[in-house]
């Protein structure tokens, strides 16, 4: 099934659209929780499930506002742009090569940023945010779809291009994204077990 994804860009854009919408909703809900926490620091947030899954513990630390504003605001913007691009292409519009590569680069930035953030959440803060996990799953999904759409447009030498062809045709790219998600799950299990 997965090997046909490269030949079905409309399906990949549908995946990007769905993941963008999912990430947007999770980011938006997290922003609402942050606003509630700012209004009333002692409020009980909906995303506070237990001591481990606790948005309050996450939203109160510097890692949640790395660039001086809430990370969820940055995620909302990213997911809206991604959702819009996915929706345009899914509906039959055209997205130029440069824009696709820029969006893929942004998605990869969020893969790295999200990995760092979840690492901080697990090992420094000692809590996890459900919304952050949903956002990161969306980011990994979006990154995988952009890679499948764009890897032929990235010009390398022939050896690297054959390597990417091999990786995608054998679904090793999907294994890579699943490996990242599994690594985070293992880290959390080890830390919180």
Structure characteristics:
about 190 residues, mainly alpha, 7 helices, globular, de novo design (two linked rop proteins)
**Low-pLDDT runs:** none
What is the number of beta strands? 0
Average pLDDT number: 92
- The second-level CATH architecture is Up-down Bundle
Measured between the Cα atoms of the first and last residue, the distance is 36 Å
What is the chains' assembly state?
A: single chain
**Global geometry:** globular
Give the total of domains.
1
**SS-based class:** mainly alpha
The H-and-E topology, N to C, reads as HHHHHHH
Tell me the name of the CATH homologous superfamily.
VKOR domain
Would you state the CATH class? Mainly Alpha
CATH topology descriptor: de novo design (two linked rop proteins)
Q: Percent range for helical residues?
A: over 70%
Strand content: under 5%
Number of helical segments?
Answer: 7
Radius of gyration: 18 Å
Sheet having the most strands: none
């Amino acid at each position: 099934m997965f090997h046909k994804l490269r030949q079905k860009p409309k399906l990949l854009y549908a995946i990007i659209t769905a993941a963008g919408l999912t990430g947007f909703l999770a980011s938006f809900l997290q922003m609402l929780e942050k606003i509630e926490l700012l209004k009333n620091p002692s409020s009980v947030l909906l995303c506070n499930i237990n001591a481990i899954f606790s948005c309050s513990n996450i939203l109160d630390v510097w890692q949640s506002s790395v660039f001086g504003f809430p990370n969820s605001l940055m995620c909302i913007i990213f997911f809206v742009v991604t959702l819009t691009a996915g929706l345009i292409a899914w509906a039959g519009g055209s997205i130029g090569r440069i824009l696709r590569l820029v969006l893929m680069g942004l998605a990869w930035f969020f893969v790295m940023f999200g990995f760092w953030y979840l690492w901080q959440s697990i090992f420094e803060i000692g809590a996890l945010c459900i919304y952050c996990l949903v956002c990161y799953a969306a980011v990994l999904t979006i990154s995988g779809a952009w890679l499948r759409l764009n890897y032929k447009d990235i010009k390398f030498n022939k050896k690297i291009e054959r390597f990417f062809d091999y990786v995608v045709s054998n679904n090793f790219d999907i294994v890579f994204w699943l490996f990242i998600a599994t690594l985070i799950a293992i880290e959390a299990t080890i830390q919180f077990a």
